[in-house]
Amino acid sequence: MQRLWIAFGALAGFGAVALSAVAAHALGGLPAASVAMVRSGIEMEGWHALALFGVGLWAPRGGRLADAAGVAFAVGLLLFCGAVYALGLGGVSLGTVAPIGGTLLMLGWLLLGLSALRAR
User: Fold this and answer.
1) What secondary structure letter does DSSP report for 119?
2) CB atoms < 10 A from the CB of 15, how many?
3) Close Cβ partners of 98 (under 8 Å, ≥ 6 residues apart)
């Protein structure tokens, strides 16, 4: 799983940088609130890309809890950022998808911390 978390973190980091370029150069026609929403999604994607990278480095020692944190981060990123981007870029609300994704991101941090406390 270690390589999977690092690869997914790298993909998320790539996405955050690419969307940052789009936000800087191509979102001038959107309302300020939409641009702010997209930037918030980019920030969360970037931070959690690093979290996934960290999970990949920690996974051999953190065991199942570290892998569970990786799952929570990966799914949370897809749900939360996907919903934020859908609303900010397309005006499409996905209902409770963003809060579910955000909850998974928070759960990922708790699982990662717990894996550190349980490691030998």
Assistant:
1) -
2) 18
3) 79, 80, 83, 84, 87
Report field, pTM of the whole predicted structure over 0.90: yes
Run means of pLDDT, 10 residues per run, the chain, 120 residues: 96 97 88 93 97 97 97 98 96 96 98 93
Q: Which of 54, 44, 49, 45 is nearest to 112 (CA)?
A: 54
Task: Collapse the DSSP code of 118 into the 3-class scheme (helix H, G, I; strand E, B; otherwise coil) and give the result.
Answer: helix
Contact (CB, 8 A) for 107 and 76? yes
How many structural domains does the chain have?
1
Burial of 57 (0-12, 13-18, 19+ CB in 10 A): middle
Query: Alpha helices of 26-95 — where are they, by DSSP H?
Result: 32-90
**Structural domain that includes position 13:** 2-118
* Four-residue CA torsion sign, 87, 12, 1, 53: negative
What CA–CA distance (Å, rounded) separates 111 from 93?
A: 29
Give dist(CA 52, CA 69) in Å, integer.
9
